[in-house]
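Exercise 7 asks you to align residues with tokens for two separate proteins.
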Amino acid sequence: MRELTLTDGDAGRTSDDVLDTHAAVQSVTRHLESASLVEQPALLMRRAALTARSDLPATRRDLERALASLRDAPEAHSLRTHAGAHRLLSDCLQEQGEGQDALHHAELAVALARDSDDAASLAQSICALARRVTAHGDAARAIEILTEADGECRRTDPVSQTRIDILGALGHAHFQRGDIDAADRALLMRAEAHRRLGSLDDASADGHAALADAERRDAAWGVAAARLTLGRVALARRNAEEAIEHLLGAIATGDRAPDKQMLISAHEELHRAYEMAGDTAAALESLRTRNEVAETWRRRADDLALARLRVQGEVDLARARERAALARSERLVAEIVEHTPNVSIQGFDADGCILFWNRASETLFGWTAEEMLGETVERLFADPDELAGFAEGARQAALEGASFGPFEWRSRHKDGSKGVALSTYFPVVDADGTESFICMDVDLTDRRQMEDALRARERRYRTIVEDQTEFIVRYEPGGILTFVNESYCRYFGRQADDLVGTSFFELIPEEEREPVHEKLRRLTFDAPMRVEEHLVLAGDGTLRWNHWTDRAIFDDDCQLVEYQAVGRDVHDRHVAEERLRAALTEVQSLKNRLQAENIQLQAEIRRVAGAEQMVGHGAAFQPVLAGIERVAPTTATALISGETGTGKELVARAIHARSARADRALVKVDCTSVTAGLVESELFGHERGAFTGAHAQRIGRFELADGGTLFLDEIGELPLEMQSKLLRVLEEGAFERVGSSHTIHVDVRVITATNRDLAKEVAEGRFRPDLYYRLNVFPITVPSLRERRDAIPHLAEHFVNQFARRLGREFEGIAPAMVAWMDTYDWPGNVRELRNVIERAAIVSTGRLLEHPSLVSPAPRQSNTVHEPPARLDDAQRAHILETLERTRWTIEGEDGAAARLGVRPSTLRSRMQRLGIERPRLDGELNARRDPA
């Protein structure tokens, strides 16, 4: 069996220098009896290495025990240690003839070494695997494995012991396959790697082996390549004479080889050798020869003789220079050791007496070199047990000739404080056989404090996670749970031990599993998170909706490690959303029904409005009809003026009905019925909380009339501060609700009406001139009823028919006395008053003719009747206030209001009206009744 060798990650190694293997085995066995579980794998592997060539069954038992211990406590050991154990067991099994098991353990060693990111361990494992594959007769696969590994080394670290091991195994594989030339090439590449790494003896040995093999087979290329390699090794040793000899041999043999580049390289190296020897002429000649090598190959012998003659005189000088360089190197190493920061370096003899103490040791422990030289290392140890372990380790290191460590121990400092250090000891034997040690210490005190703080934070984090109401879990890519918090356990009604190790997908309904799994597979390093809601099987056996946030966790190589998920129960919200969707569906159904009913209602309104068309087409009314026909098809603003009751609203409706907006709403605003403080809210709407009492959002009349027509009745009553805002809407089609900064754009046609003389109002400063001109685009003046008396019979007949149908009565006509009265009456209330009079007469008439005009107490235009004054003061005040209110059309405030005419405050007038029982009539026809309270 080949010699088993452990890396420093393998906890120990065998050595040919160990003279008493049996004693070493006994020492390891004694340590095993008292070793902890963490220490046992390293001791078992060390004993296996010692017994590898003498007792294979014992070696195998120790390695299998070591692997079992490593599996039981994996966190205490590195992946390098695992890989080394599998590699050693693979060698042992191969020697015992169990090739298949040996191959399996070699493959495990490669996988573990690759995960450890340790190049040396990986190289040793790959070489062991290649040997196993070769032993199975598949040298081609071994060559493929090693070639790939060599290519990776060339890209990452072309000059390393790792590549040297791989090239050695590659040469062996080529040799087993029978390709001697390829084996020699691998051997020479390994020699070159040895040379560049500084292992000149190994490089020389490889070169001589390749040279001997090539000379035996009379392979010109192999001889030339081997001599070129040996020449380079000699140059590295600064042995110019040997270098020139090998290089000249390479050139001589290279004449028969097809590789001219190798010959040129040989000339270049020869040039360097001559320069090293101080032979400038020969150096220049070698350069000229290199340039002429393509044309002639015949000047080698004379050049070699000349070079030898000139090099001989420079040999002594070169050697002297080498000795001086070596002395400088020794001084440089001493300076480096003395001033190396952060690494404490000490030297001590076999008895523990300190011989060397660098400056970093002074910084770490506090004592100066003068204070510590001659002292023992016992002074540095705070724990006697650790001191005993150190003494045993140093003795074992001296026995095996190997390093001891690294190991941690608690250190004592000059100021009395204690720390933690990581140390490694190297045994050194002088030429006279004196044994001593070199120790390198690294201070771990700050690191240990940080690790303790990190563990404390981890405990706090775990406590926080356990106290969360959300479900927090971690699981492997296959769905196997590795962590669950308490909330998750309570929700699913199981213990943590029962859940960990089971599949996350077992708690998801079968029909939901594949979609969830598919979405998890789509998570990438760049997009590692997804949010999803799906059903789960709760602990009470019901299906409930959960909201989950899954995050994929990747390592530094972008390989998926596991998932972390945070979830919560959202079943009640889902149920509420389902109910909301059902409610919205019902609302939509009701909305559709409402729209259909609205369409039907609009049609009915148009039908009813059509039944109340304007009646009477006398000459005085023709300009009104013509104006309606002209302005209706346009979008122009119309200003309708006329006395109260002349039918201004009916004109507005006629314009709307004949316009392109007839299918949309006509929205009316009576400016006299809205208080000054609420006009803006009425027109433009308001937001919730805009003012006291604004408990909800309100849509203004402009917004309601979007796409239709807005009729502003009695526009002259609009306050001045609102007139500017109305002007902006008319010009820009935009406004803001009260309490909002959001601008609303509307398409509204505006029709206004007034019974005031707006031109006079503008002149007296009560109406904005710019608004007046904007409204007065198309003026229409509706004549009073007394100006169109020819229309009274037609209107009266129309109203009689209308009220007869409504009351279910039949009238043959109007009594002549009432016709005569209507012809003589002044009609201050115009058409509205006429309509109300007809309605009252229709109600009180008992015969087939409409009569009883005395009920309306008409006042002829010319009357000589003397009225008796009221007997009581309150009756006189009541009559005077009523008359004034009728003359001002029940306008209380303002310069022309009733309060101003009566010479009292508006509040005083209102209180007197309340005391006297005076109320504004809901129908203008009731005015006459109120004039006669009896």
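Second protein for Exercise 7:
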Amino acid sequence: MRCMPGLPIAIALTAAVAQTAVVADPSPLVFASEYHVQNWQVEDGLPQNSVNAIAQTPDGFLWMGTLNGLVRFDGSRFDSIGLYDFPEFRSDPYVWSLEVSPDGVLWIGAQRGLFRLEKGRFSRLDLPGLPHGGHVGSLYHDRAGALWIGTNQGVLFCHTGGTVRRYDQRDGLPGEAITTICKDSSGVLWLGTTGGLYRFDRVSVQSCERQAGAPSATVYALVPHPTAGVWVATGSEGAFHLSDAGIDRSALMSSPQKQIHTLYRSREGTLWIGLAYNGLEVMRAGERRRGLVLDPLLDREHIHCIFEDRDGNLWIGTEGAGLFCLRLKPLRAVTVADGLPSDFVSTVFESRAGSVWVGTEYGLAQMEAGGRIVVHRNGDRFEDNYICALGESSGGDLLIGTSSGLWKLAARGFHRVAPFAGVVWSICTDSKSDTWVGTSSGLYRLRDGTLRKESGDPVLASAEISQIQADAAGAVWVGTRVDGIFRIDGRSCTRFTEKNGLADRAIAALMVGSDGTTWAATRSGLASYRRGSWRSLRAPFASAEFTAILEDGEDLWLGSAKGILKVSKRQIEEQMNGRDEVIVPAVFGRPEGMISSECNGGRYPSAIATRQGLLLFSTIKGLVILDLRRLHGRPSPPTPYVVDASVDGHRISTGLAFTAQAGARSFDFAYSCIDFASSESPQFVCMLEGFEEAWRSAGSDRLAQYTNLKPGRYRFRVRACSRDGIWSHDAAEVEFRLLPLFRQTWYFIALCAGAGGTAVWLLYLVRLRQIKARFGAVFAERQRISRELHDTLAQDLTSVSLKLAAIGKQPGGEPAATEEILTLARGLIGDGLREVRRSVADLRLLALEGHDLPHALLEMVRKGVAGTSVNARVDVIGAARPLPYRTELNLFRVAQEAVANAVKHSRGSEVVVEVEYRPASIAMRVRDHGEGMAASEAPPRDGGGYGLVGMRERVSLLGGTMEVRSREGEGTEIAIEAPAERR
């Protein structure tokens, strides 16, 4: 973890930032302001507010020992780990010390012995001869692989190679409780006890009391010195450095009112000192100890332990205020308090000589080496305090844009270069030494001392210029507030708007990247120009408008109203190409050190990248300085993991895979991630392979739910992205199988398919049999008709033929004989016709094939009145239903005859056929509005077909009744009612 000394931030802007500076009386608030402090207590999930020990296992989890057992922490979620398999731990769950061995085993020093956690399993290590009630208060793992175990009974154990060796008073130990253990750089083992300090070389134990000033009181902490000996902290005799050369109290001596209980040396060499109810102090090489004002609660707490995780975050366990984390802020704001003329910073510029110039609304500031800020205000050199743009001429002079014109700072001081009617918003000098000036009323070029307005494009001549950038090829890019982008290359001027691919014409920032890509921030999104074309990303990954664009390797840094965003250029390109790329930018705002998250824009330049690896952004609350050296390699990628899974509300043990019973409907996966890089919640994407084809953004949610899944194999995957935009290397995965119901199994489906095929085959056979039977019936009927025609009509016609032939053989025959023969012939013909009618009546009617009776009647009526002036209709009363074919055929024939008679003889204008479906019968009425007929006309007319007699016969065959109602001049109605059984 990098701990910057309390120097003015301006030192970081020059080469002096890499040098160590000594300040006579640095302010503790300046030092403390570089840290973000976060606290967790019982209300935040911590099971107990007294944290005695902290360690980190190779999988990234933090482990804490409390007075209520062991706690695992991933950065946002606490899990209490009770060693419930051990009754003595359950009854007295105090955890005093933690140590992680190189093989990843977590050793736990508890009230009732020593435990180990390896590959998710707990076990107890037997310590031979440990007295009843003895607890393990200190653990130390040396470089040789030995685990040293100190107890409150004054017994020391050494666990190495699977064996445990005991050391006690017989070996020279004093019998006092061992509070702390460490080895110095020469390999000497040091023991801190309640009775003083001892050194142990595995041959003998020597008390350090013989050394002048060595403590005889309780030793609370020991830390190896980087050169020789150890740092020693006591409760009542202060702290000192002890080595073979003696005792040095000058470096760590604290005031008598402050008792030191904890020492911790970070990886970079800073010594952190935890006091009893007085917070923290720190000591660095070349600097005296200082107090830190970090947090009001922490500053008055008793510090139990200090630990640095693998990302450089400092974790502090206290006696009653829970857990604290100190994260070094990657950025800081320079404000009026540091010497700027105003907190409202409009533009910032780095000259070729390395000076940093800051333009504000109340004047110009120069940040000199050593941290001094020189301010130039109205009445000093400028007519206008509001600095809108900064640049540099080809000769190295500083160019300043204001509302009163363009100014220049040369060796002889400040003087006006040229006045302008509008405000100077941007200044840029290209590779040809031409200086371009963008104003609120057009673009100007300064060449060889001559200022000329660019008027080649009528829009550019009057546009408000906000940005100017020169590329390596000599072209100049000009961004306007409402008129798009112009590219000036020699004498050609090309304008780009939405028609060319820009998301919007309002340009807030321009940047030409190291690879030649031109980036533009518009009011509606982000755009890039490469190989002659623009591509845009509308509302890409943040709703705020971008005000500045900077580049750092493969990343873009974007200033916005919501802070400073870091995003991968590759991810932006992927999304611009239409690929479903999830972009989660790293956001730097107030939690990281900004006073306000709103960056300023619309002026040039509003942000710069310095040669020392610093990014500077203009904001409404100071100049924000972001040190990239604090970011590179700083955070570890977050490590996602699946906490648990539940099926239909029942929690299951996930492991790597599980099987869900058939019929399960809902699947819930709770997940989290190990992330200590930021106090903000990480972002997640997840996917259920077998159900989803692509990753979906889950935001900061930590629960994924799926319902109504089909039987099969699935794999739930989750990835995490820290607030710094760092993605996890791998995804956490859980595979599971959903068993099918019996009706969903392949053999059930096969059985159903076989049964269905068999049923279809049987239906086919039945249908084939029906067709054969129908064909046989038709064939038999034809045979019957043939026989009847042969036996009746053919014989009658033969007889008629013979009789007619007989008449022909009577030359001049007698009339009486001829008449008799003709009478007989007529009778034979009449008999034949009746036989034909009877045979035809037994055939099926085509009009009823595939239709119901009302449809057949309607078609018959339509054809029957065709070519006449008679109107006809069919009315149906009740719900039509299928009737036996015999019933429908005879009713159809009766209606057909009645309609034909009405058309031929009634001389009426309308014929109505009414069919009424009753529950047990069917009624049919055929009426016309013609002349009517007398009752004596009941017999059929000559040549009238069946006539009324035939109609009555058909009705009689159905077992029904027929009634004829007619009066002369009032038309005729034929009413029929017959039984109606269902087909």
